[in-house]
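Example 3.2
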Amino acid sequence: MKGILYVKMRLLWVLIVPGLLFSQGWFTQTSGTNKPLFDVHFADNQNGWIASITNSIFHTTDGGDNWVDLEPTPSVNYYSIHFVSTQEGWAAGNFGQIRYTTDAGTTWADQNSTVDGYLWDMYFIDEDHGWMAGGRPEGFPGPDPTRYILYTSNGGGSWSTQLYQNDEFALHSIHFFDANIGYAAGETGAIFNTTDGGGVWTQQTSGTIREFTAVHAVTPDTAWAVGVNGLVVRTTNGGSTWDSLYLGTLHHFSHIQFVDALTGWISGGDNTHATILHTTDGGATWVMQDAGTNNYLYGFFFLDADIGWAVGYDGTIIHTTTGGTGIEESVGFAEEPFTDVILAQNSPNPFSNMTSISFSLPQSARVKLAIYDLIGQEVETLVDREMSAGHHNITFSGKNLPNGVYFYRLNTGTATRTKMCVLLK
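Structure, written as tokens:
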């Protein structure tokens, strides 16, 4: 009798435990490295690649159970990777370097990008047609910053410049809905749109000067962009107007992806937390998911509504087969009002002209936001008035101040918050 009971209990355990593990949402995969992992892309549910900003490309042929460092040479800091099949793909990084493979990454060939800055992101709609977005930082390797968008119609055999602007800061993300409709976004709140495959790129008004890190076209008319300090904007009319949204956190956002008009994710975090937000209603509501790690997440990739991977700091790789939904998933941000005064780091920082300072109030209060120099003298008052509860964003121009280190202080009468910023003209 005990033997039969034991067999039944073992059978019940075999049936229940996989279900519990399955329902955890996200679980960790072993990368075998502590390098920061920046971008990830899968051709199918077995074959995937990860770009590292420390000269490595990692490859798996078993869905991420095992990862191998391909150790491509020469060394490149890779920021973006994209594969159009299990064999053919591209990786891009610093100093305008583009590398191309037709054997899953065993060997790589260099392609001529015609630029010398950083290539932050790429998107291919097929094996021939692709775009890259990037820019050159101010002072390195030239005196003036630039932003640019590159295009190929022959698989990278040649790259042409669709957009090139001097004295403008870099673009960090590019995405196309189809062969014609695409968006690019980057520093100083820049968003560009094209409706003819990049023949013409038109700059749109985003309503912010904060840095965008990712953009995603969901439908012909709807697109989302995310960035630093909880920055989220959305358009539903092809970019004619962009609405600023607050999702309940001032964590930095690094990436956004939708697999259909309703289902999408946002990743990011701060110094001590990973952040994954998930929507199943087109962004009307967002729910925080348990990432299973505290490490910042730089990027992620979903094959469909269930299967996805995310990568980040310290060699972090996490994987889900449930769309990230599990028994430890928390309630949505919309149902979690914050209870403390929050002052975010200004962006950009350092800044040369304009910067943005964000803060959140749990209730209405008399607010003073002021700038101070290193000896504690107030040099400028940005806000001194009654303000409502919620999220606020204030623009600060340092054009009348000399270069240097400054402090900005938020005082609500019951709380004081202070952070440092750097002005470099």
